[in-house]
Amino acid sequence: MKNTLITTVLFDMDGVLIDSEGFWQQAEQEVFTSMGATWDEEIAIQTQGKTTRAVTELWYSLFPWEGKSIEEVEQMVIDRVDELISTEGEIKEGVIQTLNFLKERKVKIGLATNSPESLINTVLKRLGIRDYFQTIVSVDHVEHGKPAPDVYLRAAHNLGSEPRECLVVEDSFTGATAGKNAGMTVVAIPDHLQYEQERFDIADFKLKSMVFLNEKIVSFLHEVTV
């Protein structure tokens, strides 16, 4: 057992900074059913946090379509999510307060997401928070998306931080797994409908809302036992 100072906080994007998980489900349902798939809510829930390519490949394996490639259908989903975010996207409660809290304390702040770079730009423009992040890592920048640790390890490297110094903020089981695979401390803020699921026990801590994060971060910034 040893105590490690947390110097860096790395945020997921969808479902953490912006209330966008519903947009992904809406876009996937519209696009995949237009290609002949039968929509299944359970599949949609299980794929939360995965890359758009992985989700599209899964639906194709279950309901093979003709006429468009997997890449083309994936882009249709991304384009629809982009449209929804641009017109309806809203920042999650507590995000601005948390980012200001970290900035005032000179904590390094990074963004690491399975979303493509084009959507990151749309989200950060819509929310007006780009300047808070000292590094932004997209799935486009690494070999493997979450649950592999690549995006988090790349973000830590970019900031000159060791994994043990990093705190990851996630909403999905896939993302929480990526943070743990990276050797980082993980705070999970699941959707309220998934909060009681045992799979989120993989996280070091679990919160019901971002509004409670600052209180938890205070202890992390002094030392956390690992």
Shape: globular
Structural class: alpha/beta
Taking Cα atoms only, what radius of gyration do you get, to the nearest Å?
A: 17 Å
- Rounded mean pLDDT is 92
The amount of helix comes to 40-55%
Number of helices: 9
Residue stretches low in confidence (pLDDT < 50, at least 5 long) are none
The strand count comes to 8
First and last CA, distance: 6 Å
The biggest beta sheet is recorded as: 6 strands, parallel
Q: Order of strands in the sheet with the most strands?
A: 4-3-2-5-6-7
Beta-strand share of residues: 5-15%
Reading the helices and strands in chain order gives: EEHHHHHEHEHEHEEHE
Keywords: Hydrolase, Metal-binding
Protein name: Sugar-phosphatase
InterPro entries: HAD-like_sf, HAD-SF_hydro_IA, HAD_sf, PGP-like_dom2
Family: Belongs to the HAD-like hydrolase superfamily. CbbY/CbbZ/Gph/YieH family.
Summarize the structure.
By secondary structure, this protein is of the alpha/beta class. 44% of the residues lie in helices and 12% in strands. The chain has a 6-stranded parallel β-sheet with strand order 4-3-2-5-6-7, with helices on both faces.
Secondary structure topology:
Blueprint: E1 3-4, E2 8-11, H1 21-34, H2 41-46, H3 52-62, H4 70-88, H5 95-104, E3 108-112, H6 117-127, E4 135-137, H7 150-159, E5 166-170, H8 173-181, E6 185-188, E7 205-206, H9 213-222, E8 224-225
Parallel strand pairs: 2-3, 2-5, 3-4, 5-6, 6-7
Antiparallel strand pairs: 1-8
Helix pairs in contact: 1-4, 3-4, 4-6
Family: Belongs to the HAD-like hydrolase superfamily. CbbY/CbbZ/Gph/YieH family.
InterPro entries: HAD-like_sf, HAD-SF_hydro_IA, HAD_sf, PGP-like_dom2
GO molecular function, one term: hydrolase activity
